[in-house]
Structures
1.
Amino acid sequence: MHDFATSTAPTDVVRRQYLASAAGDLDALRATLAPDVEWTEMAGFPLAGTYRTPDTVTTHVMEQLGKDWDDWTAHDDTYIADGENVVVLARYTATNKTTRKPIDVRVAHHFVVRGGLIVRFEQFADTALIRDAMNN
């Protein structure tokens, strides 16, 4: 029987990451990440850069998004899987805490999953729409 909670299938691992993120469960999110993960937020995104280690990813990305945005959610709409590569077409919704401007932005995420853990993540997003929501 297929057990989603312990499955090492790349799409299941990635889906667990989205569910943990949406629930604000950073322990569960860290459990999906390899110890030497490379997590890249796109140039132009407010948190642009590459983060390594599960703790660094949650501290510098997820916790920071929670400080700047209300209800930041990545909605994982469509999965395209090819071996260890999983591309997710998604969208971000949130409201900026300072400007009160909402976003609903299409994004794509590329994950590489090995041994049941995310070893690499790269974000593609319309950073201009996100920046616009941060400015009055």
Note: The longest helix spans residues 54-68.
2.
Amino acid sequence: MPPLARLHHIRADALDGDTAQTGGMRRFAAISGASVGSERIWMGQTHVSPETASSNHHHGASETAIHVVKGHPEFVFLDDSGGAPEEIRIRTSPGDYIFVPPYVPHREENPDAAEEAVVVIARSTQEAIVVNLPELYVLGGTGDSGESA
């Protein structure tokens, strides 16, 4: 039976850690082109250790939806709607959702000293696109190439 003519079950212990990574976090693929033949979606988990921050990054043309499962991760980006770029921190709790538009530079942080943060991620591409960056910048501002490099 062709891969796209049946349902696929990916067990929690069968997630694939051989995916695009960012320093300070570990991504695990569940649904991907490689695992199930998906053509327009990628889904998996990200684990962020206690007192850890990821590198600055964006996800190219992917839209990214995040569901917080465990911990209180913080999502950090720059906003210049007030005129000057300002660092914005979104502190989350289990059950919360975050939406990251394409190309928006950000990072995830887990300030908790004892508890790992775990999130489920869904992307609008079949694979995890990760473009690591030396620093955050405002999308459309200085330093934005608008490309996924």
Note: The chain is about 5% helix and 35% strand.
